[in-house]
Known about the structure:
This protein is of the alpha/beta class. The chain has two domains: about 1-115 and about 220-350, Periplasmic binding protein-like II (D-Maltodextrin-Binding Protein, domain 2, 3-Layer(aba) Sandwich); about 115-220, D-Maltodextrin-Binding Protein, domain 2, CATH 3.40.190. Helices cover about 45% and strands about 20% of the residues. It has 14 helices and eleven strands. The longest helix has 20 residues, at about 235-255. The model is unreliable at about 1-20 and about 345-350 (pLDDT under 50).
Amino acid sequence: MNLKLLLIAVLVSGIAGAVPGYGAEGKKVTITAGHFPNVTHAQGVIGQARGDFEKAYGDDADVDWKIFTAGPTAVEALFAGELDIAYIGPNPAINGYVKSYGEALRVVSGAASGGAAFVVRKDSGIKTDKDLDGKKLATPAIGGTQDVALRTWLAEKGYKLKEKGGTVDLAPLANPDQLTLFIKKDLDGAWTVEPWVSRLIVEGGGEIFVDEKDLWPDGEYVTTHIMVSTKFLKKHPDLVKTWLETNLDITNWINENPEEAKKVLNEEIKRETGKALPDDILNTGFPRIEFTYDPVTSSLYEVAADAYDLGFLGRKKPDLADIYDLTILNGILKERGLQEITVGSPKTAVN
């Protein structure tokens, strides 16, 4: 009898170990996932609110959500094995990939494009790009996506920053602090992303001076994409596939039901942060964002080249050849009769 019980236990253990979502020891996998409580991370926010991913996995896996407010923090969590999958912006993804020598992280899908802009106070005196001498500007973080965008734009217009002996004062300021200083008239302009673009306009008396989409071919550039740890991707490709299928379904639902999507999104943002976005802010900013599975790969390479030129990626030009692994996403797109994503060659500047 004891021998029979032992054989049954071994058999059950073997079956569990072979079932998708279960580890070698037959234990149910817990996927640790992260997103920002932000409009540009809408698939993650809505997916958490409605339990879409948990429903998709059923008995195969659990999802443990982590809320982040800064890309570098999320990247560190991916490095430390505290996070398996995350919605994240391009520059933190690039920095993380470079710091791990191309080993630790992979971009597996897009999530959002657009939503960033250079906003100036209407009474700042900034009417043309000749009016920026002596102005005080801000971005959310040094070396971040919007910071690189503004520094690059200023350089193209012939400006030097005060930190380098120039005339433009650029400071890293958290988005809430930007709004406060706009209202106090102590800040002239900021390059940021929704919903803060709309908040600076509606609450801070600002106006869009440069819409970033006007700087990109067809107005498309990556704002948010999905990144996974290489270790998790190799160990659980089946779970990554389910995630990407669900993300695609949520993306389609958002685009087909924008009013309902805004409602679900805002309710979850309120739950996560304690405060919902005002309706006029959400209604103004939401249409500026395109929710898409396309990671707009060409824009990431351009952003990386700009970051390198600004000195944010070290002395050696980084090799980004393997930052994307779109194999699973393209398999899903093929199954659904959709056009597959082709990853272009990285620009010479980042080879």
